[in-house]
Amino acid sequence: MPDLAERIATLIDEAVPPVTAAEARVRGQSRMRRRFVLAAAAALLVSGVVVAVAVSAGSQRGRVHVSPATAPPSAVHPATGSVIGSLAIPLLDLDVPVLEGTTRDVLRRGVGHDPATPLPDRRGTVVIVGHRTTYGAPFQRLDELHTGDSVIFSMPTGSYRYVVAASRVVDPSMVDALLVRERPALALVTNTPKYSARLRLVVTAQPAAA
Asked: How many domains does the chain have?
């Protein structure tokens, strides 16, 4: 089967009308030069595709296990209601989508990232809010987490691993006091006790050691 360059050259040649012997020789030389150029172009095209695939594969491999302390900052703030990643807690067999925002509509679809707090690739505490008894109750068993348990926040920029540092029950007005701002951290927040919004259960976590 003719290669890409030959097929293109054939299409060009078939469009050329009959000529004299002298013109044929000249045009034959021209066709040879043209085929050489086309062959070189086809080779460069194929090489470019291979390089692009290799770069893409390398980029995909580089997106896992990123340290929140060293990751580059996000350039664009996500739109409210958009899915920005997923939250996995192996101990609780939990893996849910993380959406931007904490409105009622957002929390019906998964857990929500408080837009007033940073994303994992920036300094400060990432706050994730979720229901405990309604809309799938993603944080129903949040009180079962203990120091050292793993939490994984996956985004297109990487998978950010944390380990639980503490679990506290506080008044809603005291949640902000638990959030650190000088270093990367994570806080999972839900209502407590179950079927009540009187208090908040706050599980804080630190980046896992590299």
From this structure: 2
Amino acid at 73: P
For 52-66, give the DSSP string. Answer: HHHHHHHHHHTTSS-
Q: Are residues 103 and 171 in the same domain?
A: yes
The amino acid occupying position 195 is Y
Instruction: Name the residue among 110, 91, 95 with its Cα closest to residue 153.
Output: 95
> Using one digit for the tens of pLDDT, what is the confidence trace for 90-110?
999 999 999 999 999 999 999
Q: What is the domain range of residue 28?
A: 4-61
**Would you say the pTM of this structure is higher than 0.85?**
no
CA atoms in the 13 A half-sphere facing the CB of 111:
28
Cβ-contact 127, 145 below 8 angstroms: no
Q: CA quadruple 24, 26, 28, 31: dihedral positive or negative?
A: negative
